[in-house]
């Protein structure tokens, strides 16, 4: 009996010790006393399975992080020191830093990064900093950090992305979107023209042409001419964007600039029954190309008119304010607004939701404002669609 009890406690002890030490290499399923400890061994196998799943997930997550072209470090706090829980391959290779285990070792390698994090006491940061990489010229990086506590474990995440990489990503994305739109527009014209051309080619090969065939030919030629005209207009629109002349700046009062634009648009406001609420009181001097700026206002106000088509009480609001050496002009309407899924496409060349639209109004306006050293922004607020023009004021 003594040896039986001793053996029983020994099995319990070995199993519990394996669990506590996170060691699941043993296989108790083949133990001669397995049937006497079914629940214990079921617990062991369950924890063993969970451990395998955890390891698998950890490997997948690390593999994903190692493929990301952003420098990533995850710190884990142990008592009063930070250990490096994870450093992805991109960070290690890009900054020529070995995968060290302690924060103090990383500080010896990248002092400029570590010092700014320590200055902020390992709290959330979003800033830019310059780092010299491999004795080359210094490069500017975007630094973002976050801190979180999970199951009483304190983690600090550091993300470093090269400004150049960020710009290149945005440029590639913009070019990709632009090429989709251009390809779609070109195919919309080229495909029917090619189809009609093939049809005409077959008709002219006939020995005789009937009156019905002649009518088909006339219709085909008319359609081809229409699509060719559309294609020509599309190319002309692209030329306007690509060859936007530099602004011929002159001194002009803000209210005079607004009045010139309203003079052109007022007949359309009256026709559509639109109330214009103009609350501009400031009258700063602006250094601007009056013709180009009028085109911007006309484009934005035309968009307002379109957005108000199905609205009963149609209103357009225009206001302005001066902050420091900048003038902010706001144009809003109480129309149907812009759907969230297309908000990031509204400044894309040739993108439009209007059947009769060319899709260059907002792009052209944005380019004009930027050529003046300002910016054009869009926002949705208080059930109003709002465009903000920012111009530098001397």
UniProtKB/TrEMBL annotation:
SUPFAM superfamilies: ATPase domain of HSP90 chaperone/DNA topoisomerase II/histidine kinase (SSF55874), Homodimeric domain of signal transducing histidine kinase (SSF47384). InterPro entries: HATPase_C_sf, HATPase_dom, His_kinase_dom, HisK_dim/P_sf, Sig_transdc_His_kin-like_C. Residues 181-394 form the Histidine kinase domain. One of its GO terms (molecular function) is ATP binding. It comes from the Bacteria. Gene3D superfamilies: 1.10.287.130, Histidine kinase-like ATPase, C-terminal domain. Keywords: ATP-binding, Kinase, Nucleotide-binding, Transferase, Two-component regulatory system. SMART domains: HATPase_c. Its EC number is 2.7.13.3. Signal peptide: none annotated. This is histidine kinase. It comes from Flavobacterium sp. WC2409. The lineage of its organism: Bacteria, Pseudomonadati, Bacteroidota, Flavobacteriia, Flavobacteriales.
């Amino acid at each position: 009996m003594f040896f039986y009890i001793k053996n029983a406690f020994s099995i319990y002890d070995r199993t519990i010790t394996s669990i506590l030490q996170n060691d699941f290499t043993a296989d108790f399923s083949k133990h001669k006393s397995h049937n006497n400890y079914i629940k214990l061994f079921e617990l062991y196998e369950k924890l063993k399975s969970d451990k395998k799943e955890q390891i698998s997930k950890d490997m997948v997550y690390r593999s994903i992080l190692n493929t990301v072209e952003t420098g990533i470090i995850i710190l884990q706090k142990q008592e009063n020191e930070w250990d490096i829980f994870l450093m992805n391959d991109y960070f290690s290779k890009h900054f020529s830093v070995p995968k060290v285990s302690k924060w103090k070792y990383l500080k010896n390698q990248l002092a400029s990064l570590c010092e700014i994090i320590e200055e902020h006491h390992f709290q959330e940061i979003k800033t830019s900093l310059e780092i010299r990489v491999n004795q080359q010229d210094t490069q500017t990086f975007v630094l973002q950090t976050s801190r979180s506590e999970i199951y009483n474990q304190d983690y600090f995440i550091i993300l470093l992305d090269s400004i150049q990489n960020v710009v290149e990503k945005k440029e590639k994305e913009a070019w990709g979107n632009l090429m989709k739109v251009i390809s779609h527009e070109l195919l919309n014209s080229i495909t029917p023209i090619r189809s009609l051309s093939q049809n005409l080619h077959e008709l002219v090969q006939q020995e005789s042409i009937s009156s019905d065939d002649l009518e088909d030919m006339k219709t085909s030629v008319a359609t081809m001419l229409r699509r060719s005209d559309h294609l020509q207009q599309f190319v002309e629109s692209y030329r306007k964007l690509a060859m936007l002349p530099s602004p011929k700046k002159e001194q002009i009062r803000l209210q005079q600039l607004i009045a010139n634009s309203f003079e052109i648009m007022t007949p359309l406001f009256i026709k559509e029954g639109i109330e214009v609420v103009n609350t501009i009181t400031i009258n700063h001097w602006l250094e601007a190309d009056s013709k180009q700026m009028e085109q911007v206002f006309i484009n934005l106000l035309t968009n307002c008119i379109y957005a108000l088509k199905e609205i009963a009480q149609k209103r357009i609001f225009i206001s302005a304010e001066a902050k420091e050496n900048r003038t902010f002009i706001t144009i809003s309407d109480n129309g149907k607004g812009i759907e969230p899924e297309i908000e990031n496409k509204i400044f894309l060349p040739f993108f439009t939701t209007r059947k009769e639209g060319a899709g260059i109004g907002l792009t052209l306006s944005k380019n004009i404002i930027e050529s003046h050293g300002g910016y054009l922004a869009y926002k949705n607020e208080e059930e109003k669609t709002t465009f903000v023009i920012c111009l530098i004021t001397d």
